[in-house]
Hints:
By secondary structure, the protein is mostly helical. It has helices at residues 11-19, 23-31, 36-41, 48-67, 75-79, 88-91, 98-101, 109-130, 132-153, 163-179, 185-200, 207-226, 233-250, 252-261; strands at 2-4, 7-9. The chain has a two-stranded antiparallel sheet.
Amino acid sequence: MTQASVGHICPECIKEQKKSRTPAQKRAARRWGRGSAAAVSYGAGGSRMTTAIFIVTAVVYLLQMLGRVVPGLDVQGWLLFWAPYLYPEITGTFEPWRILTAAVVHSGFWHVGLNMLTLWMVGRSLEPMMGSGRFLATYLLSAAGGSAAVAVLGFSTPVVGASGAVFGLFGALLVIGRSLGAKMTGLYIVLGINLVLGFVRAGQISWQAHVGGLIVGAIVGFVLVRTRRPKQKKLQIAVLSAVGVGIAAVFLLPAFGLALSL
């Protein structure tokens, strides 16, 4: 029996599932250095982090709903992202956790529903290729990138939602898919429509978070493609850490503007 992300599987079953893989799945297994057990999980399992993010977001939304009838339970107010909360000279507080926690609170049922549907669809394709750790890093860095773009381009705009993180997954999938030779036309269309909607409904949708998350996700995808060999693991961690430092540096730009205005 062979250990796989979905449990144990017999060698004969592995051979059968390897035979039934599509050309894109075979390329993914070769280029991402996956063994036979991981190849089995592609498209069928290996999406535990996607499930975990989905559950956490759903639970937080239920708490938001509960907060409508329970006085003092203002979950959205505690977790949303509003750039001034990062600069004590404006609000007198420093609450950096909001950079990431904004991705787990939503403005309504359709908002959380569409974001989680997209997460589920993209995550179950992307996470098995990347691995759960890389997938989580991509999600969190993209969420932070979305918040950074809002801080620079929409400083006074309160933001909630996982859209920045989800757009980051889109960006990573585009880069990784192209590296595998997959046809990405459908994804280009979906991504283009969503970006246009963000600008058209600028008063209701934070296009800044979409653009910021997409750019960071694409950068992370490029890093993963270029450092996918096992011996490059330390280099990969170092470069991804540098991406995180770069995002943190973006939050300093509004601080410089505030300093000049005082």
